[in-house]
Amino acid sequence: MYNSQLPTDGGNAPKKSSIGVGVFEQRADRQGNERIRFLLKSFGLRTSLIRLKVIDALLTAAESDRSLGVRGVHTHLLELDIPLSFLSVREVLKRLNSEGVIVLNADKSYSLDPRAAAVLQDH
Q1: How far is the C-alpha of 50 from the C-alpha of 92, rounded, in Å?
Q2: Smallest Cα–Cα separation from 75: which of 59, 65, 86?
Q3: Phi, psi (deg, nearest 5) at residue 118
Q4: Based on the structure, what is the number of domains in the chain?
Q5: pLDDT of residue 110
Q6: CA 54 to CA 76: how far, in whole Å?
Q7: Is residue 36 part of a domain?
Q8: Element housing 103 (H / E)
Q9: pLDDT 10s digits, 81-123
């Protein structure tokens, strides 16, 4: 039986590969997420998407030698098209701070606690 959707001579085959660079970026992102999941678990916290994204934002800022406050984390997440409310971001930062995953600096910015950084380096 003839199926008109299947190319018969290869002439109608797509020229571009269906696997883009984004696939490899997702794989790297998953590895980063696994590290953050391990970090949260080691501090006795459940993994949630907002916690993953907030910690990832802080790690990204730290790699660029920047520090972020509540507004900075919220803005960073909005730039990534992650629609979280300002209050949600603030509550997650407060919870991560109270559990010892992050610290509130004197300038009201947040950074990873040295113990949490050690957990990430060991994993």
Answers
A1: 8
A2: 86
A3: -65, -40
A4: 1
A5: 97
A6: 9
A7: no
A8: strand 102-104
A9: 998 999 999 999 999 999 999 999 999 999 999 999 999 988 7
- Which amino acid does the sequence have at 53? K
Q: Please choose, from the candidates 92, 118, 109, 97, the residue with its C-alpha nearest in 3D space to the C-alpha of residue 38.
A: 118
pTM for the whole thing? 0.72
Look up residue 63 and give its two tokens: 């790699």
Longest Cα pair distance anywhere in the chain, in angstroms? 73
Rounded-to-integer distance, Cα 62 and Cα 40, Å? 18
CATH number at residue 97: 1.10.10.10
Q: Are 62 and 111 in contact (CB under 8 A)?
A: yes
- Single-letter code of the amino acid located at 115: R
Per the structure, the complete domain to which residue 103 belongs is given by 47-122
Q: Is 85 within the bounds of a domain? A: yes
Residue 26 counted as domain residue: no
**Inside any domain, residue 114:** yes
Q: How many other CB atoms are there within 10 angstroms of residue 75's CB atom?
A: 15
Question: What CA–CA distance (Å, rounded) separates 90 from 73?
Answer: 9
Which pair of structure tokens corresponds to residue 75? 């803005």
Report the candidate in 120, 53, 119 with the shortest Cα–Cα distance to residue 80. 53
